[in-house]
Amino acid sequence: MNHVGDRAQRVDAVVKVCGQAKYVDDLMERDMLYAKVFRSTIAHGWVKRIDTKKAKALPGVEAVVTFEDVPQHTFPTAGHPYHIDPKHQDVADRNLLTRSVRLWGDEIAAVIARDELTAQKALRLIEVEYEEYPPLLRAEDALKEGAREIHKGTKNIIKKSEYQLGDPEKAFQEADIIFEDEFRTSMVQHCAMENHSAYAYMDSRGRIVVCSSTQIPHICRRIVGQALGIPWGRVRVIKPYLGGGFGSKQDVVVEPLAAFLTTVVHGRPVKLELSREETFIASRVRHPVHFRFKTGVKKDGTLVGAEMRLISQNGGYASHGHSIAGKCTTTFRQIYQQHAVKCAATTVYTNTPAAGAMRGYGAPQVIFGLESHMENIARELAMDPVEFRLKNLHQVGYADPLTGLVTYTNGLAECMAKGKELIRWDDKKASREKPAGLKRRGLGMACFSYGTGTYPVSLEIAGARIVMNQDGSVQLQVGAAEIGQGSDTVLSQMAAETIGIPLEMVHIVSEQDTDISPFDTGAYASRQTYVSGLAVRKAAEEVKAKVLNWAQRMTDLPAEDLDLVDAWVVKKPGGEKVLPLARVALESYYHPVDAAPITADVSNNARVNALAYGCTFVEVEVDMAIGKVEILELYNIHDSGKLINPQLAEGQVHGGVSMGLGYALFEQLLFDEKTGKPLNNNLLDYKLMTVLDTPEMGMGFVETYEPTGPYGNKALGEPPTVSPAPAVRNAILDATGVKIDELPMSPQRLFEKFKEAGLLGEPGSK
Amino acid sequence: MNHVGDRAQRVDAVVKVCGQAKYVDDLMERDMLYAKVFRSTIAHGWVKRIDTKKAKALPGVEAVVTFEDVPQHTFPTAGHPYHIDPKHQDVADRNLLTRSVRLWGDEIAAVIARDELTAQKALRLIEVEYEEYPPLLRAEDALKEGAREIHKGTKNIIKKSEYQLGDPEKAFQEADIIFEDEFRTSMVQHCAMENHSAYAYMDSRGRIVVCSSTQIPHICRRIVGQALGIPWGRVRVIKPYLGGGFGSKQDVVVEPLAAFLTTVVHGRPVKLELSREETFIASRVRHPVHFRFKTGVKKDGTLVGAEMRLISQNGGYASHGHSIAGKCTTTFRQIYQQHAVKCAATTVYTNTPAAGAMRGYGAPQVIFGLESHMENIARELAMDPVEFRLKNLHQVGYADPLTGLVTYTNGLAECMAKGKELIRWDDKKASREKPAGLKRRGLGMACFSYGTGTYPVSLEIAGARIVMNQDGSVQLQVGAAEIGQGSDTVLSQMAAETIGIPLEMVHIVSEQDTDISPFDTGAYASRQTYVSGLAVRKAAEEVKAKVLNWAQRMTDLPAEDLDLVDAWVVKKPGGEKVLPLARVALESYYHPVDAAPITADVSNNARVNALAYGCTFVEVEVDMAIGKVEILELYNIHDSGKLINPQLAEGQVHGGVSMGLGYALFEQLLFDEKTGKPLNNNLLDYKLMTVLDTPEMGMGFVETYEPTGPYGNKALGEPPTVSPAPAVRNAILDATGVKIDELPMSPQRLFEKFKEAGLLGEPGSK
């Protein structure tokens, strides 16, 4: 392959480095109005009285609307494809503004003013009186008998599910040993560079145009339509470049309100941008999940049965609903073979920020639990953790009993071998001395598997349109959304590969416009290189076939004897040049009788999925006295199938591992226990990884060739963030003998755990 | 038909009336640089020396470029489709900037500055020294033996052509009477509300983006590529709404220079906008043409042979070259039958503004000559001018011997009957008294024919893309350019008609973007409703077929028994409702197995043409003492086939007739005889029709059904402007007995002619 596999420079590299790339903020109209949301200062309760008179009277205020003024359509916000069957639709549990307060910062009213400052001043003039209830900040609180319902009639349960494969009770009876563990993960936020931002206006015929920083333009269009109760075709969504999303922009957060607000001011453009403080609490967070694992094992380390029960804390609104818990229960069974499996999951409303999609979509949580649990078992069995895992891996040919999907490629064993080699696992294990002192070193590892896209849970539809220019170059239009992950580049490489032209002859249209862009549900689930890639390949194949048909007419050589290489029509085999592509393209435009420019406009419904695999190997030094973990060496090894662009693949791993380490060690959104007020919803107090916290990140790739992928490729966007946390946890265990069962493994928590374990007794005591 | 034929409101009515429509000027980037052109102050000569040092040194000036700095590719500017055969390509006779001065205001250098004022100041600091030659302001001067060549090696002739049908010499011998006449038309300018304007910048990968007020975005892209010598795919042209064009924006005037200038400043956005004064001389004008007619007639009024020789004055550059002269010679033969025809045409370079396309494309000139000549013959034969014309009309079935095109519809006889009736021709003729006094009334009429599009001279390719939304509404994308003529509206009506949905469910994408919009050569030749309409119908038929196929799957009723009416799938016959369209559309998006949104992306090469016909009937009162003509009554009657939107049709007739009357009575661009300096290139001194000069304009339509048109329609955009001038000329003749043989029929010219005819002798003498 000429382009697939090439370390091509990102097609948006220069434009981004030079500051030319246009984001929502750069596209703002002149004479824009500014909207601000009036947010609750309680976490749970009810608005008894609201008075907006003073705010309305402030000069420069164009309008103030409250929950009484908005359409009473409930709508969902999750970036999932629509389903015709209402039973499979997302939970529609919110209005544009609310009288019932379900979290601190809930959206009660909105102000539209001629400038931002006036809007902010007006917020302070709104008077509100609440009936306040004690906030239910944890799933346990919300599930207590008699707990007040955050959404009426739900008992605070969004959904429960369970499944069973084989006979777990029998398996446990046959096991030699039963292991049980409990783990908890923390609430974290995506912290994309660009906050949520949108502006909306009405066009001449009353259609609403929303320009938004969204990962899911076509879904956003649908949800704006649902929220406003108008036909979806009367909404147009435009997505320029994005300053990151990581899943938080896979929810439709600001767009429906912005769209409604422009209707209040007769279609004038209205901007609605969240501050960083608002983004933390009013966009989405990653679910804290509480796991209980139970596993039956033979003495030789063979897994025979496993059970996982989880409670996922979803916050004040359903967002992605039970899907993340569902993904946990699926991921649970897809790495290791066992005779019987049982899962039960519950997703719960609480008075905290709504949890939604975040890089990994449940996998960082469940893999933290699962791989910590596996480590505990291996150590208890006195087996090498790698050997223990290798013994139990699913193999190629594994057919998932619930999805029906067959595994055609699985490079996990090779990934582990590579990880061991890179970190010199055996040498270090062999040469290590008995741990002593307050600074101790340890080795840890953890594995993961991760699906590519969402099939068969959701529809996996993608579109691509290619238009060939007179010089043989092409425009490539996709509905897939470039959100910083590099999809524009890899999709361009694919088009160049299949058509047979240099990469610089592919001009990708980066902006998505739902009026024009082919339909694609957007950027999520590490799906784009795979699902949208299939659509690009299909369109490119159509274009190539049309070129060769024209060439046949022009040369009298049969199309099947011709090929297209580096913008030349050549003879097969041998590659003798026959015609420049530009000559064929020109003919297609200007042939007096049969002129018809070469184009393809395709849609592809990808009814496939493939598991990507990988692992993290890490060596840490734990300074127990101050609870500090230093990463000495770290390797993430990935089987993501064929790499379309190794340079971008490395970038994904860098970013994902860094995010995974923040999750492991530092990040957690905290709330005042009594009021539910967020305590650290800003970048000073929320401990995001900085460049100084970030170690050298090593990596390796095992390039299997996945036959269901367009070019042998599988997921890579999310996987790197999944396994660092349990690997670090297992390394800390290796170093200190202390089992950490909760994230983040922050200095305070480690200090407490080490103290509890007696490791920090009297100075010099151990 | 439900939508075709409906007086639907323009889809852009509200946006334009409310000032929301975006024109080039509204889309300007922040931090734009401004360019101004340094223009010659002589009309003919050569730049001996140019010094830009002082201009470059002015603070705020970013760059100054001269003819020495531009790429040395010659390029054409005409909005014609490209032709692969170089012999059929447009004349490429200019560079971006020139050392040879060919007209007053020729483009020698350009300044780029941080603001407009600085750019203007810098122009004044450029020093230039010329070698000046006497300007050749008329074709006669340029053709004189030994005249200096404006373009080397041309003898000042762009092209000559001639053809002969039958044996004219024999026909003249067989004729009872031979008539000879000579006519001259004037140089006029389009005077679109919006001047020529563009801005250009380079995107991240070095592609050049031009946002332009152009009628021909796809052709503009090609010409920018040719001018800069870069592959055409590296250029992107965006066309927002236009403030009119009338053919002047069917030339690529400012775009290539704007595109080049952004490359000089490393891709920063550069704006290049012509002032009104510049637009008059540096865009395009309508050709002054000198005609000589010779016609042989039988005593009974039967035409037997005709000859026309013309010399067309093209100005300093070729622009559309000989095409306008060619159109004159074609139009000449297409109204009246005769045994033999002979035509000879010459297009000549002169030191005047370049002449190009202007509404009517040669027809206003040739029809002024032809219909004045016909009137002279009828009067000489003492025949009623209408009877004389009726006797000689081509009939349905006429096959043009040179184009091979067959006439399927010809409503000209009915048009004349309608005109006579509306103006009460026979009554007025019968009741009139012998003319006397200085104010005299007269009746006049003139006919025209006008092709629809340019086939078979040029390629007539058009594209349309339709995307159906989940609610059954559609986006319609066309490459056809809305330039104020209403194409967005009529093409939307067509889509609504063929698909079977209400007009408000068609969302047309008005902006053209050559990266995305289907290929279409643009707005000219009254082609869009016909040629682009065929593409829209083809796309709409495909969409409808796909909808009915889905409906068949969903209902088990055969697709051929189903129809789509008003957004419902219904049974044929009877119209019983089966399924709402929105339900089908939703299925196409979300069917778990076969999801594929309903779209069509088509190209259509229209190898057809159809003659539109019509006539003007007018009654005037001539105040001979002051040379003033008052239009008492006027009717333009059109056979444009089926009217897609009668309201828009009426608007076209209003605008066209008004333009035709300005051409008849007032407009003429004048030059200083000695220097070639324009004398009235501004809206104060150039006598454009004002609303006070504009009479009530009556009209009528004869709706034939043209089988080659998508909905029975033929040209209507340009035709209304063609026949008013000769009709007024013939009415003046009727009133005064004086034959005017030159345009405009301004007070000064009329006064001189009346005086020469002795009508203004001693007061009361006649």
Tell me what you see in this structure.
Two copies of one chain form a homodimer. Chain A has 766 residues and is an alpha+beta fold. Chain A folds into three domains: 31-133 and 196-273, Aldehyde Oxidoreductase, domain 3 (Alpha-Beta Complex), CATH 3.90.1170.50; 285-455 and 608-756, Aldehyde oxidase/xanthine dehydrogenase, molybdopterin binding domain (Aldehyde Oxidoreductase, domain 4), CATH 3.30.365.10; 461-605, Aldehyde Oxidoreductase, domain 4 (2-Layer Sandwich), CATH 3.30.365. The first copy, chain A, has 19 helices and 29 strands. In chain A, the strands form seven sheets. Chain A has an eight-stranded mixed β-sheet, sandwiched between helices. A five-stranded mixed β-sheet of chain A has the order 7-17-16-15-8, with helices on both faces. Chain A has a four-stranded mixed β-sheet with strand order 18-27-28-29, sandwiched between helices. In chain A, helix 6 (217-228) links the parallel strand 11 (208-212) and strand 12 (235-239). In chain A, helix 6 (217-228) packs across helix 7. Chain A starts with 12 loop residues before the first helix and ends in a 10-residue tail after the last helix. The model of chain A has no long low-confidence stretch (mean pLDDT 96). Chains A and B meet through helix 1, strand 19, strand 20, helix 16 and strand 26 of A and helix 1, strand 19, strand 20, helix 16 and strand 26 of B. Chains A, B: One of its GO terms (molecular function) is iron ion binding. Chains A, B: InterPro entries: Ald_Oxase/Xan_DH_a/b, Ald_Oxase/Xan_DH_a/b_sf, Ald_Oxase/xanthine_DH-like, AldOxase/xan_DH_MoCoBD1, AldOxase/xan_DH_MoCoBD2, AldOxase/xan_DH_Mopterin-bd_sf, XdhA_XDHase. Chains A, B: Residues 18-134 form the Aldehyde oxidase/xanthine dehydrogenase a/b hammerhead domain. Chains A, B: It holds the Pfam family MoCoBD_1. Chains A, B: This is Xanthine dehydrogenase molybdenum-binding subunit XdhA.
